[in-house]
């Protein structure tokens, strides 16, 4: 696979595990919370959603690495949900309206507006048949 992805979406550390990190900082005088905090940060940074012309690849995991490659079907619309913390730290949930089922985890994505713009651009250029929904292998 020599081609590079058209767009890569990543999880936000604050959105994915911000509460746990805050708790670990409060309890940092204990050794175990420091290791938990490091694990949570690494786990969030290892999550990637790569968008190609004909497929989407999701990569995640620290010790057990999972790669999921999926084909695409029709997407009808895209919207963003952001909490107050999400607006401050620039993360949010990207909700994709599809015909069928969208089974890619797009919660707590960094810069959700960019992912929304990317998906809307594909919808405009190729029509609703150009953006697709993920179908499990």
Commentary on this structure:
This protein is of the alpha+beta class and about 140 residues long. The protein has one domain. The chain has four helices and eight strands, in the order βααββββαββαβ. The strands form two sheets. A five-stranded antiparallel beta sheet has the order 1-2-3-4-8. Strand 2 (about 50) and strand 3 (about 55-60) form a beta hairpin. Helix 1 (about 15-25) packs antiparallel against helix 2. The two termini are about 15 Å apart.
| Cα gyration radius (Å) | 16 Å
Helix content range: 25-40%
Major beta-sheet overview: 5 strands, antiparallel
Into how many domains do the coordinates divide? 1
Please identify the structural class as seen in this structure. Answer: alpha+beta
Fold blueprint:
Blueprint (H helix, E strand, L loop, with lengths): L6 E4 L2 H14 L4 H15 L2 E4 L3 E6 L5 E7 L2 E7 L2 H6 L1 E8 L10 E2 L1 H15 L7 E2 L2
Antiparallel strand pairs: 1-2, 2-3, 3-4, 4-8, 5-6, 6-7
């Amino acid at each position: 696979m020599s081609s590079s992805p058209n767009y890569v979406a990543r999880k936000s550390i604050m959105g994915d595990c911000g509460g746990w990190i805050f708790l670990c900082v409060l309890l940092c005088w204990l050794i175990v919370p420091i290791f938990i905090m490091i694990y949570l940060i690494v786990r969030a940074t290892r999550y990637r959603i790569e968008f190609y012309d004909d497929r989407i690849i999701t990569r995640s995991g620290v010790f057990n690495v999972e790669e999921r490659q999926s084909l695409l079907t029709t997407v009808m619309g895209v919207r963003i949900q952001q909490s107050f913390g999400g607006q401050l730290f620039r993360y949010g949930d990207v909700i994709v309206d599809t015909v069928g089922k969208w089974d890619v985890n797009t919660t707590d994505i960094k810069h959700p507006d960019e992912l929304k713009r990317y998906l809307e651009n594909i919808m405009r250029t190729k029509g609703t048949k150009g953006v697709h929904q993920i179908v499990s292998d």
